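I'd like us to work through together how a protein chain folds, taking it slowly. To get us started, please write out a protein record for me. Go ahead whenever you are ready, and we will take it from there:
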Amino acid sequence: MINNRISPSEISLTKKDFMSDQMVKWCPGCGAHAILKAVENVFPEIGYKKENFMFVSGIGCSSRFPYYLNTYGIHGIHGRAAAIATGVKVSNPGLSVWIATGDGDSMAIGGNHFIHVIRRNLDVNILLFNNRIYGLTKGQYSPTTPIGSITKTSPHGTIEHPFVTAGLVMGAQGTFFARVLDSDIKMMSEVMSEAARHDGTSVVEILQNCIIFADKAHSLVTDRELKEDYQVHLKHGEPMLYGKNREKGIQLKGTKLQGVVVGLNGVEMEDILIHDQYEKNPGIHRMLGKMEPPDLPMALGVIRSAEYETYDDMVEIQVESAKETSEIKCMDDLLNSEETFEIK
């Protein structure tokens, strides 16, 4: 649903309206190219005036995004995109604010800002490019690099346990979390549209391929021979089915999720879990977000979309209340309030 505080466009916009004239300097084959195309597809459909879109970024390959999209934008400093976006949104609620960030930018130096913008539930949209590596600075391991990976800064294999993005978002009381692949522009576009409609902080984790420093980092999920068994595409109100013939499903057994085959060991279709992305209790959403091959397929699509009050709405309410109840209505009132001091 379009935000009624953001002005709708009076004319129909197209993809070309959002295409920048700047040379795109990502490496050939980088998944970021597909992410850019998805955003160009989605923005005309959202329906806001072009000048009401705002992109904020930090530092990293992903953070070049504001240059490559014909909207207003701020290329900030490392890890501080969420802080900048907070100031932008609170000072101007009439903007649709988007953040482009990477796994290093958001969850290492920017980790504190990341969890708190989620906790506050500010109405912004975060596109998190997760390539499991630091690409711009030439291949150091990041907070999401799998344990044991050989990188420029872990020549004997990293010994750090990586973040699971979904777990971090849910732990920070996130209201919207989705996961998509950079190779699926259609799903990316659909999920970004849902993120835009969500009133609150939306986090879309995009499993992105860095062809230079972490090629095939997500191959277990994206490999053509394996993907049917290692991907479960979530749709609200539909059973969680996967497999080449959709013969497999996710079942809740006690307090754990497990993969089962419909028709075997007494498993019937009604035993398969139905996805409810709007459930306020994040319990099932946490479990779905943490599923990983080879034990279970990876959940793709919108995992969680719960409605809660937003930070920017509550700030506006407080400001209006203060205006109504304060005796000071203008600068003259302040200067004559006896709440001033004189420097001699």
Remarks:
- The first strand starts at residue 53 and ends at 57.
- Residues 28 and 211 are 8 Å apart (CA to CA).
